[in-house]
Design the sequence.
């Protein structure tokens, strides 16, 4: 009887977990790389599993700053404004939104057929021009990948790119495989992560590759994601595939400045002075736990100039407590059944021995 009850409870629990698994909308999601720090020292970062923009206050308090914002990238404007994208469904993106320094919210750009903002890689310059890529990063989805520029009045031009691939060159001669992270350099050029490469794009459309070519290899369909350029010209890049943060020096040398361990991978980075803030998510396939809201699934850490690594915050799934209670209940039932059957067997052995 007890064994039957235990099996029934186990089947029910597994059925509930299976339902959660198949109802998760963002399983195997392409995680966000957006992380910025405003002038007041508040840290903002993207959370794709829950479509949330989080804020960490100067006192270290974690707050849900914006909800229903599916924004892979976050951009900090020169005036202190924060830009991101709306929640999307399928390939349709709502708009680019702006949080002004005074806290007011507004939509500043609606994608068009010529400027779709697929998968949300975007950045804004000091003249309010928006740059993005025309095709999503997954292979075989488009035969073209172009870097686009849209002026405030809606005029769209192709800065560089053409057929999907990899080639340095100017304008249409250059080829991209799939752009994610984008960051400005002090000389006005644009740096992007393009699959396993970091590319520099001058404003005349000239594209060159940094370092010694490919910096990583794909793992679970992911490679390089967010990047940041320091005032001295070094580039920090989140290598999701190999679970590390790389630094590309102006002389072309590359070094690993952080390894995130077996369970975590970096997705985004940002510079604040000499400090580097790193956004990390669970590594695939563990990323599914974030979609199910179970356990710790995102965190922010800081690397200081002396190489000290400090954890700033960790985000826990909303179903963590419920899942823990279910596990405890299963464990308690298992122990009870095991002890009951053990005692019953001991009694049977005793009766046989005394018979």
Sequence:
């Amino acid at each position: 009887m007890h064994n039957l009850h235990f099996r029934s409870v186990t089947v029910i629990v597994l059925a509930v977990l299976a339902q959660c698994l198949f109802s998760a909308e963002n399983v195997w999601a392409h995680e966000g790389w957006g992380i910025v720090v405003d002038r007041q020292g508040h840290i903002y970062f993207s959370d794709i599993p829950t479509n949330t923009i989080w804020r960490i206050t100067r006192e270290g308090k974690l707050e849900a700053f914006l909800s229903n914002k599916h924004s892979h990238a976050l951009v900090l404007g020169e005036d202190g404004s924060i830009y991101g994208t709306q929640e999307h469904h399928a390939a349709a993106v709502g708009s680019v939104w702006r949080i002004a320094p005074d806290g007011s919210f507004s939509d500043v750009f609606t994608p068009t057929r010529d400027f779709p903002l697929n998968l949300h890689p975007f950045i804004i310059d000091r003249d309010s021009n928006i740059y993005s890529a025309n095709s999503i990063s997954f292979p075989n989805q488009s035969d073209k990948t172009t870097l686009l520029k849209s002026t405030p009045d809606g005029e769209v031009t192709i800065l560089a790119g053409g057929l999907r691939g990899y080639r340095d060159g100017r304008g249409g001669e250059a080829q991209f495989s799939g752009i994610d992270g984008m960051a400005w350099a002090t000389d006005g050029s644009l740096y992007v992560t393009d699959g396993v490469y970091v590319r520099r794009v001058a404003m005349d459309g000239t594209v060159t590759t940094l370092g010694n070519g490919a910096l990583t290899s794909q793992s679970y369909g992911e490679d390089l994601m967010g990047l940041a350029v320091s005032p001295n010209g070094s580039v920090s890049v989140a290598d999701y595939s190999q679970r590390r943060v790389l630094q590309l020096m102006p002389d072309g040398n590359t070094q690993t400045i952080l390894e995130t361990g077996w369970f975590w991978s970096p997705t985004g980075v940002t510079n604040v002075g000499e400090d580097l803030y790193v956004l990390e998510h669970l590594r695939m396939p563990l990323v599914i736990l974030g979609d199910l809201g179970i356990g710790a699934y995102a965190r922010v850490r800081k690397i200081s100039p002396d190489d000290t690594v400090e954890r700033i915050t960790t985000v826990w799934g909303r179903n963590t407590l419920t899942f823990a209670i279910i596990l405890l209940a299963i464990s308690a039932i298992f122990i009870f059944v095991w002890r009951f059957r053990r005692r019953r067997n001991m009694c049977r052995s005793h009766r046989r021995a005394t018979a």
Notes: Residues 1-6, 9-29 have pLDDT under 50 and may be disordered. The helical segments are 2-23, 288-292, 320-354. The longest strand covers residues 264-272.
